[in-house]
Amino acid sequence: MIEPGSWRRRTRWTRLTYGLLAVAAIVLLLLDRPAARPAFFDTLRAGSDDLAAPVMSGVSAPLSGIRSLRENLKEHWAVHDQNEALRARLEEMEGWRDLALSLRDTVSAYEAILEVPGVAFVDPVVAWTVAESGGPFQHARLMTVGKDKNVKPGYPVLTDRGLVGRVVSVAERSSRVLLLTDSTSRVPVMTEDGEVRSVLWGDNTNAPKLEFASGSRRMAEGDRIVTSGDAGVFPRGLPIGVAGVTGDELWRVALYSDSEPIDAVWVYPYEPIAPPPPEAVTPVAPPPAEPAADETAADDAAGDEESPGGADAADALPADAAAAEGEADGEAETPVQQAATAGEGQPE
Fold it and tell me: Does 275 or 177 have the greater pLDDT score?
């Protein structure tokens, strides 16, 4: 049970404490203004900071060490798990590497037997790219190489993962690359097995769409998309990405080059197949025009009039014909006449 006297004393001390705290708060508020703050307080604050800094540093050092140790342990276990995953992936990649080398040798042998010409690539040109703002395209980048490295418009530009775009303009020491995602980009593509062909249509998104797909089968989720080489825009077989259907129910391609920043690139000199020159055609003279029927009749009449003895020859023709008929009649005898003639030559 609390006695009345102790309650009064406790209440008095509580009120006194609250009053002192209120006065101290008011004084601190008034002294916090730079105009009303005495220089003594600034000096006192600076001195207290100098004294507290080593103490706080000494106290926080062990805490920082414990915190960093915990983070290091977490990173260590994460690195361990990553190493295990990378080892498994490396073993799988070694098998694919051996298969790729075997297929490369087989294809090379077949091409040598069939004398199939391949795409001839010269050494690529390495360049750095930077983003472009205010240019003629919405999705383009600038490269640090140009005519000084024999870069020409139309050359494909790739990263270590896949195709980025193509060179559209070249200066002396710089060039502009039109990315596959730009709305003006159109690239003939196909599935890796070559059974489906389409056009990669940029629309200013990170995943360009596929238009005008056609082939012996339908497009499937996960199909690897490469360049088809049609129209000579790019060489055949450059990797682009993976096909899939998005929320807008359109076939789009997740670009390989979009998985990391586009900084270092390779420019591959490529000359498209040039069409043969047109053959020289020898002009053929038109056939002479045939004369009309009226002109032909007039020419015949004029020829008859000009030839000498034309009328006499015409009159002689019936007499000759009559003589010839008489001879024919004399030669051809009836069977009765033949019998009479035979009887005249026999003795009675």
Answer: 177
